[in-house]
TrEMBL record:
Pfam families: AMP-binding, AMP-binding_C. This is AMP-binding protein. Residues 29-390 form the AMP-dependent synthetase/ligase domain. Residues 441-517 form the AMP-binding enzyme C-terminal domain. It comes from the Bacteria. Keywords: Ligase. It comes from Pseudonocardia adelaidensis. Belongs to the ATP-dependent AMP-binding enzyme family. InterPro entries: AMP-bd_C (IPR025110), AMP-bd_C_sf (IPR045851), AMP-binding_CS (IPR020845), AMP-dep_synth/lig_dom (IPR000873), ANL_N_sf (IPR042099).
């Protein structure tokens, strides 16, 4: 059966994303702060931001960069991020946001695959950018530095962003078609080389409007995030959503608990966007009590499953509403979420389909719909689903079927309230003696142990060559003596016998993507260690 949102469909206007976000700017709006860097204090008001976007678009147009071209943006969160992003779009080109932690090889692959002509880069990434630009087949002809360039020279022309913004070339007249490419983010690449996800203006315009039930943003709202803006969660669900609502985006280049708490208190943030690892700190760390966090109204968690008990702990401690959202890069990203007006829904669920989204739950082997309450693969359809993978028709056909359904690769169930629950990734299920064991379920159990600061579970072969659940555990500071037997006994007392953890390895940190997803592949290839 097809599940639809309980909320009415939104009208998706036939405009470009920048026109939607900055259109109808009033005098009051123009004077509001649009973005501020919590670390440096650099900020832009809406009026100045819109003017700078136009200047950048004019400078790019004068360079011959426009419709059909791709510009890459290689930077951590900073006050210039929306300026560069929308300046590129306003010139008619598409933006390929790059993970700021990428190596030279990763960056070169994305630049080459995307066919990027120009690269906007933070000073911290300039050495990697210069090296990537020198690699064979990388097509960029200019690097624009978001600050002062470091000493030395690279293989292509280098320009300061400030010099482009001093341009007096008029912004080119661009008639954006809804099917024009707007963003070309790259998927996580945890199963191979990352693929370019083609997101159109219509995809992004639709999704920034579809997210409405999840937040209470209003003009003047303060929205704090250390979630990377180069990730589609940060790009659509935080930056562009807040700008559209005339809120202020308070950014941090990376997560640091003390700086995060200080920024929350200083900027009186009312919306906080996080991944589950930050929820752990907000629920348990004693430093939280040292800061006035009374301004927080909404905490939105996404990018990885959030356990219901952990969500409730954060709610109780902060006196705020905690909601969870779900999506993929391929869906711009949001397809599901817990609306702020539905406190009755299980906090551990991913909530309901967003407006305009249709969802199905199917048997991954047969493609047939499963009965309500039974697990199956989640399929989604809507105006936010990607155009396809760049130059990869085979991968596109495997991801989006002829009916327009995106195959998410996530196993879900639907409860009697209509809320969806993620069981696990299809490819991450552990097969133990014929039973299916979901790593996310065991991780949720492990995180309830007072001695566990963080955990991940993968399938690993035992002495008999059979796959068994293995836990990678980060001990909390309060429990340096926690041993493997205690961990296994704790889990065994709380799960069915076939789900028991049968090996434990203690680690200093769980490897995760910038968006907070566990990088299970890295754990699977770790050299064997004493457990």
């Amino acid at each position: 059966m097809i599940f639809r949102s309980p909320y009415p469909d939104v009208t998706v206007p036939a405009v470009g994303l920048s026109e939607l976000v900055f259109g109808e700017l009033t005098a009051d709006d123009a004077d509001r702060v649009a973005i501020v860097d919590a670390t440096t204090g650099e900020s832009h008001r809406f009026g100045g931001l819109v003017e700078a976007v136009g200047r950048l678009a004019g400078a790019l147009g004068a360079r011959g960069i426009g419709r059909g071209d791709v510009a890459a943006l290689f930077a951590p969160n900073c006050a210039a991020y929306p300026l560069v992003f929308h300046g590129i779009l306003s010139a008619g080109a598409a933006v390929s946001p790059v993970n700021a932690l990428y190596t030279q090889a990763d960056l070169a692959h994305q630049l080459r695959d995307a066919g990027a002509r120009i690269l906007f880069c933070s000073p911290a990434g300039l050495d990697r950018a210069r090296a990537a630009a020198a690699e064979p087949g990388v097509p960029i002809t200019e690097i624009v530095v978001l600050g002062e360039p470091a000493a030395g020279r690279g293989p292509v022309r280098e320009t300061r962003l400030a010099d482009l913004l001093a341009s007096h070339d008029p912004a080119p007249p661009v008639a954006v078609d809804g099917q024009d490419l707007a963003a070309l983010p790259y998927s996580s690449g945890t199963t191979g080389l990352a693929k370019g996800v083609q997101l159109t203006h219509r995809n992004l315009v639709a999704n920034v409007l579809q997210i409405h039930p999840l937040v209470r943003m209003r003009p003047g709202s303060r929205v704090l995030t250390a979630v990377p803006l180069f990730h589609i969660y940060g790009l659509t669900g935080i930056m562009n959503l807040a700008l559209l609502r005339r809120g202020c985006v308070v950014t941090m280049p990376r997560f640091d608990l003390v700086a995060f708490l200080a920024a929350l208190a200083e900027h009186r943030a009312d919306h906080v966007f996080i991944a589950p690892p930050v929820a752990l700190a907000l629920a348990h760390h004693p430093l939280v009590d040292d800061y006035d966090l009374s301004s927080i109204e909404i905490v939105l968690s996404a990018a990885a499953p959030l356990d219901a008990s952990l969500a409730r702990m954060v709610e109780d401690r902060l006196g705020a509403t905690v909601v969870q959202a779900y999506g993929l890069t391929e869906s711009s990203p949001c397809t599901h979420g817990i609306p702020v007006d539905r406190p009755d829904l299980d906090r551990g669920s991913i909530g309901l389909p967003m407006p305009n989204v249709e969802a199905r739950v199917v048997d991954p082997d047969t493609g047939e719909d499963v009965a309500v309450g039974k697990p199956g693969e989640l399929l989604c359809r809507g105006p936010n689903i990607m155009l396809g993978y760049l130059n990869n028709p085979g991968a596109t056909a495997a991801a989006v079927d002829e009916g327009g359904w995106l195959h998410t690769g996530d196993l879900v169930t639907v409860d009697t309230d209509g809320a969806f629950h993620v069981v696990d990734r299809l490819k991450e299920l552990i097969k133990y003696k014929g039973y299916q064991v979901a790593p996310a379920e065991l991780e949720a159990v492990l995180l309830t142990h007072d001695g566990v600061a963080d955990a991940a579970v993968v399938g690993t072969p035992n002495g008999d060559g059979e796959e068994v659940p293995k836990a990678f555990v980060v001990r909390s500071d309060a429990s340096p003596g926690l041993d493997a037997h205690a961990v296994m006994a704790f889990v065994a007392a709380r799960v069915a016998p076939y789900k028991k953890v049968r090996a434990v390895e203690f680690v200093d940190a769980i490897p995760k993507s910038a968006a907070g997803k566990i990088l299970r592949k890295e754990l699977r290839v770790r050299p064997a260690a004493t457990a």
